[in-house]
Amino acid sequence: MSDEASPLRAHLALDGELDASQRLAFEEELRRSPELAAEFERLRALRRTIREHAPREAAPEALRARIEALAAPSPPRAAPPPARIPPRWPAMAAGLAVAAALAGYGAGRAGGGDPELAALVAGYQRAALSGQPIDVASSDRHTVKPWLTARAPLGALVLDLADDGFPLIGGRIDILDARPVPTLVYRRREHLISVAELPLASAGGGSATLDGYHVVRWRDRERAYVAISDLDADELQTFAADFVKRTPP
Amino acid sequence: MTTEAASREFRDVVLPHLDEGYRLAKWLSGSGADADDIVQEAAMRALAALEGATPLKPRAWWLAVVRNAALTWMGRNRPKALSFVADLDEDAAVDAPDPEAALISRDEGERVRRAIASLPSPLRETLVLREIEDLDYRAIAEATEAPIGTVMSRLARARAALAKRLGKDS
Question: What value of ipTM does the predicted structure carry?
Fold first, then answer.
């Protein structure tokens, strides 16, 4: 402020925004003018009150954990493993384009020795047996998506597959390695299909059978998906193909 | 897909200032639950924006992202509470009687919090960034996307209003 008589000069002085010569002029004026000195003292008292008493809370731990998870370094991206299309794919003539899409993101065989997969299947089992497969019940993806997004840092892709014969019935959060995993639940007749959405770092594609449940895995540019169901294997493949087909590019 | 570079920027720019972002969001929205949602949203935006970019002033930049996320969020979810655009009413609102003033709280912290919370948003955010987060005028101007002269006058008005409210029932 070059204007010495600025009505804001006491604020500027208080906020350390005066340069040395302005500060000098201000201090001289303070000595001459009791009004200015009183105003300056009032401002300083107000600052003390605010700084001593206004709440200064930290971000809640849960929020910090979610935000830190966002910043977690992605593991170095390995080149996609050579595409090995599971034997079932050729049988799905109509799904060829889809098969190509799946293979393009790297399909491999997910085995029974995969602890992550075992945990997800256990989650499916628990949810199905408890009669409580979903935490939020809705066939409207605009309801399910915000619910999941609010609870999992990476958000979720929620697709409506009712036209393909797989109505969405809701979603839930599974926990894997202490991380929330958004999980969609679809229905086919009396069968349930869970789709767990994982960070891309999670391994691979392909299909497997674990404890009598069929599993199909695939990935797109943003996430890895694990579909688990007691449906028969071919129908689950069809479900996966429909899901991929409806995934926005 | 988040690149390693963007993740690194995010850890350098956002994480050290997470508390400030949360506090600003809470002062703007008036609720911890809302602040949670706003900061989450802001963090996603920041991560996307840090792809191939390095802000020159990380703290002011991040607070601007939080502020913008708060504006969007409030517009969508709490349209009635939003008075950011009501610059014309700033003075009217300052002179209006404080509905909470009658509530005498023995707790000085609660009294100060209420007095700040009752300021119109443009004055409140300016005061909070200066007195609680200790930003200088230039950084406040950047974070609130306002000319520096506006920052100065808002700060003066915020202090005058606050002194009046705190003096009234002390």
Answer: 0.81
